[in-house]
Structures are given as C-alpha cells and as structure tokens.
Design goal:
It is built from 10 helices and 6 strands. With 298 residues, it is α/β, with parallel strands linked by helices. The protein has a single domain, classed as 3-Layer(aba) Sandwich (Rossmann fold), CATH 3.40.50. Strands 5-4-3-1-2-6 form a 6-stranded mixed sheet, with helices on both faces. Helix 7 links the parallel strand 4 and strand 5. Helix 3 crosses helix 8, helix 4 packs parallel to helix 6 and helix 6 packs parallel to helix 7.
C-alpha cells in the first residue's frame, strides 16, 4: 500500500536499479509483439502538432512504435491515451481494454491532471495509481512508468509543484516494487530548456517529444535512428521580456485551464483515442491515419 509520502530533496539521484540491463529481447534491439500506450496528453502527443496523424498530433509514443517495429514487420501498436483525462478516467476507460489486447509492452503515465486539481488527496490518488500498475503487471507485460517533470510554476501554484514531488517519489517506489522500467523525466536536465516545451509550458514541443522517444528507447535498451537536434545556447532575456511572457502565459493558458476546471469541461471531452485498436506499424502510421479518415484536432 502506498501512503505518507514526503518530497524528495533537490538533486536526489535516480535509484541504480533503473540503470540495470534488460534481458535478452530488448537488449538486442527488439521488443517483439504489441506496445500499448496509456495515459493523457503526455502520451497522446499533445504539443507535437501534425495534421497527418489522428487528433492532429504525433508524439513520442508513435516515434517509439516506429522504431520498435523496424526489426519486426508484425509488430503492433495501440495508443489509448486521451488529453485531459484524470487517473480514475484512465483506469475506467483504458486499463481493461489494454489488458484484453495481451500486450508485451505497456507504457503508463497518469495522474498529472489530478495534480493540477484545486484540491486532491494524494494518498488516495497514489493508491489508485498503484492499483492500476498492479493490474497491468498481472499481464506479464514489460511495464514502463514515468515521473513528471519539475515544471517551474509561479508561487500561486506552489502546492501543485509539491504534489508533483510526492507523485514522483511514489512512482519510483512503485516502479521498484513491480519491476517496471522508469523514465525519470524529473531528472532530465535538458527539459529545463524552454524549447523542449509548447507555449503552454505543460506539454512538450516536437523537439521535446522526440527527445522523450529517445529516452524511452534508451530505457528499453533499443537502438534507434532518431536524429536529435542539438540545441544552441539561448540568449538571456531581459526581465521585462520575461515578465511580459509570464503574464501572457497566465492569461492565455493558466486562466482558461482553471476556467474549464470550474465548468467541469476538458479539451478531451468526446475525443477518441488516436489508435484504439492495435495497428501493424510496418504498414506506416501516416498511411494508416489517412485510411482512418479521422479529422485533425491539434
């Protein structure tokens, strides 16, 4: 049972178990079978806009699936993630359909939208999270979990930042308990670069999604052909420019987000998963998206 979490200290090191080598299949550059990606906007691909893909986004999971499918023409992929979904919705809508698919690899990131709630009982949330992980672990699939990045928030949102600390500490513990691989987003210094993020500062940019795909493949021990853009140093912005940008962010993103929360509506309402059924990656995701006839959302 997961209870009584305290925030990890600054500079906490990743537990060495997450650096362990993988057994045979992944270590030779192949994860055979079926990859099912579960979660919210992080896994759906929001921030990586591409009208050639379902819901108008691509994301790290599509990139990972493409790489995993290269040595195996029969490799399949499903992505049930939908933006704005809270943990209880992900559990209700995605866990059992994923289990029924009999996956060999499952990625699971959920709880980020709960952390942004005005009020949230973290002990209850983390117990629900562990229950979901336990159910996925019962399939025998390789599990892949994620911590949340330590997004810099204004003082008014500091309680949500602390919740993120608690969440990350719990996810690390649960990953150890269920022998899951962990992609420790919290520890990736490169994501301190603003170019890794969309203008809302909550979702990764196309560059951020590509780097995340590389981190996932690294965690799996899979060689890849992703070309990662080298980011040149940024010029330091003046305090006036930073202040204007902060005000614009609060006006354009934060206030509307909490407005939707108060109204009980989300950007994911009535939005279907991008890949609700397993697709054969070797056919080509762009081709499959075109065949699906799905209208882009963005």
């Amino acid at each position: 049972m997961v209870t009584a979490y305290s925030a990890p200290p600054w500079g906490a090191e990743v537990h060495p178990v997450f650096a362990r080598p993988l057994p045979c299949a992944a270590s030779v550059g192949r994860v055979p079978g079926l990859f099912v990606a579960l979660g919210d906007s992080f896994t759906e691909g929001v921030g990586d806009r591409n009208t050639k893909f379902p819901n108008g986004v691509r994301g790290w999971a599509d990139r990972v699936a493409k790489q995993l499918g290269k040595p195996d023409p029969e490799f399949r992929y499903a992505n049930l993630a939908v933006r704005s979904k809270r943990l209880h919705q992900i559990v209700a809508d995605q866990i059992e359909p994923a289990v029924a698919m009999k996956p060999t690899l499952v990625s699971f990131y959920a709880g980020g939208n709960d952390i942004l709630e005005l009020r949230k009982d973290m002990d209850v949330l983390l117990q629900q999270y562990e229950n979901a992980v336990a159910r996925l672990a019962s399939t025998g699939a390789q599990l892949l979990l994620f911590t949340g990045f330590d997004v810099m928030l204004p003082p008014v949102l500091e309680p949500m930042r602390r919740r993120n600390w608690l969440y990350n500490e719990a996810v690390r513990e649960i990953a150890r308990r269920y022998d899951a691989l962990l992609v420790d987003h919290w520890a990736f210094e490169i994501y301190q670069d603003p170019r890794m993020w969309d203008t809302d500062k909550l979702h990764m940019s196309p560059v951020g999604h590509k780097y995340m795909a590389a981190q996932v493949l690294s965690a799996l021990g899979v060689r890849h052909t992703l070309k990662l853009k080298q980011l040149e140093p940024l010029e330091r912005a003046g305090w006036r420019e930073l202040a204007r940008a902060e005000r614009a962010w609060l006006r354009d993103w934060v206030v509307p987000m909490f407005g939707r929360k108060l109204k009980g509506v989300t950007l994911g309402d009535n939005l279907p998963p991008r890949w609700p059924e397993p697709v054969q990656v070797s056919v080509g995701l762009k081709k499959l998206a075109k065949q699906s006839g799905r209208a882009p959302v963005g």
